[in-house]
Design brief:
Number of strands: 2
Distance between the termini: 76 Å
Order of helices and strands: HEHHHHHHHEHHHHHHH
Helix content: over 70%
Strand order of the largest sheet: 1-2
Strand content: under 5%
Length: 331
């Protein structure tokens, strides 16, 4: 199969536009660290912090480019040979951080190109979207930083793109094939479910993505009922019934995929806990409780005044009792 030179040139132009901000940023801006979070995610071994506090995927996937960078430093004679437990106890090097940021920028450009290419087939539309994408500094700032937010962003982009492709290809099914419409693009659904699971084990806040496709396809299904008064002929009614049936099957597929991804992510976390010999438990509210330690460094008068103000803004007796206990514990 021969490659079309025009398509190759157009794709190259789009990639250059998407990569231009990354090249400038890596050349001029030092690595951005997500405070202590980025350091903990890279340096702490397999345990409670890197499994339950933070999603484990970035904590260990990011160590692969760190290892590559360390090997480069070793070949240059700067550092001793890497140890067998490098992935559990990595060593930071300039080349390792550079390799990590380089992989993040490359993944951002690839995922952005995939999204833009899936939205439209027209080059000028893709060109406009690429320029708009490159003008958004937020994505590139995440790519220049050390933290799980970047991997989460890339996976969400791929997830949204896959969802769009599923909905586009479902809409393009010919009318005469609707009655035979069964399980649509099962490979696309598997890909969507795998991406959703990866999102969940990267950042636990991504659990809200579980309702993304069910909401979208549920809205499509309900929207077909609003078209009933406009169906004037028997043929249009028949077509509308087929559309409803297709939308309902898509909705069920979305619900099943989301539930399966949620269960698989939970099972994966529990398995990692067993491997690390730690007890699986919810860490919800842990960060909030940890941040309450700042009260111990406040003067007693300032601390009591702050707690009194917070207590005055709540109508819950239980919360007021809790604030009183926190004040006594901090004293």
């Amino acid at each position: 199969m021969k490659l079309d030179p025009r398509k190759l040139i157009r794709s190259t132009v789009l990639l250059i536009i998407l990569l231009a901000p990354s090249i400038w940023m890596m050349w001029t801006i030092p690595p951005l660290w997500r405070d202590v979070d980025g350091y903990v995610q890279l340096m702490h071994p397999l345990g409670c912090t890197t499994i339950l506090d933070y999603g484990p995927l970035y904590c260990f996937l990011a160590r692969l480019p760190l290892y590559v960078g360390y090997v480069i430093e070793f070949l240059r004679g700067v550092v001793p040979p890497p140890s067998r437990v490098f992935l559990s106890y990595p060593v930071l090097t300039d080349s390792g951080i550079f390799a990590l940021l380089l992989s993040q920028h490359a993944a951002l450009a690839a995922s952005g190109f995939y999204l833009i290419a899936s939205i439209s087939r027209f080059f000028w539309v893709r060109l406009s979207m690429s320029i708009f994408w490159a003008a958004n500094p937020l994505f590139y700032a995440f790519a220049q930083s050390v933290g799980s937010e970047m991997l989460s962003l890339i996976l969400v982009i791929l997830l949204v793109t896959t969802g769009l492709r599923i909905m586009q290809e479902a809409r393009n099914v010919p009318w005469e094939e609707l009655r035979y419409f069964g399980v649509l693009l099962w490979l696309e659904w598997l890909y969507f479910g795998a991406l959703l699971c990866l999102c969940l084990v990267t950042r636990y806040g991504n659990v809200v993505l579980v309702i993304l496709m069910p909401l979208a396809l549920g809205g499509v299904w309900l929207g077909h009922f609003a078209k009933t008064p406009f169906a004037r002929s028997r043929w249009s009614l028949r077509r509308l019934r087929l559309l409803r049936r297709r939308a309902w099957r898509l909705f069920l597929a979305a619900v099943a995929t989301s539930i399966a991804a949620l269960l698989l992510a939970n099972i994966s976390i529990r398995v990692l806990c067993n491997v690390a010999h730690i007890h699986y438990h919810s860490r919800t509210g842990h960060t909030f409780v940890w941040r309450l330690h700042f009260l111990t460094n406040l003067p007693e008068e300032t601390r009591n005044k702050l707690l009194d103000e917070v207590s005055a803004n709540t109508a819950s007796p239980a919360v007021r009792e809790l604030l009183s206990m926190i004040g006594k514990a901090a004293s």
